[in-house]
Amino acid sequence: MLTRRNRGPRADASYAAVWANLRRRYPDMRTLLVAGASRRDDPTATALALSDAIVRFDNATVLVLVLDSAMQDRREPESASPSVTVIGALSPDQVRIALSNQRDTVDVSIVVAPAPQTAVDCIAVAGAADAAILVATAGRTPFAEAELAAALLRQTGLPPAAALLHGAPGRHSPQPAPARPRTSAAQSQPIAELRRA
Known about the structure:
Radius of gyration: 16 Å
Strand content: 15-25%
CATH topology: Rossmann fold
Largest sheet: 7 strands, parallel
Strand order of the largest sheet: 1-7-6-2-5-3-4
Order of helices and strands: EHEHEEHEHEHE
Structural class: alpha/beta
């Protein structure tokens, strides 16, 4: 599914729609990987917004684990929800340990990782996830890099379940995404489009 993220109520509705679709497609999902589509994309805000949607939608407890290599501004991320625990600046080994230790105490874990082509950390933790989301930015993420990120995740056995397209910084209204030709007619396309009603 492909959806755009805006600020305010529409953003909340978009993240709720993403979570509802993920739950439907992966009913036993416990761990979600949220990664950048390129080195220019920061997946942390998306992971936090999605965790808030999970709490509201399912009244669930969420653990957000942020790999050190995904922390672009070096600030410890926070969530306003008391049902969301955020732990930042972790190594892949620390993420795996935290996932193992918290398996029985949280409903959903979200691992925040950099783009798979920019750091091995994303690939190192991909096997621990049940589903993956790629985060791209309109006007900033090169399409070829997003394609490469999706291909690398597919090679790990974790094809992207969704791609979230953020509006470019400073834009107040969403712009239509440019149409992109498929590179191969035989290639399966794991990212379907989710249209707003």
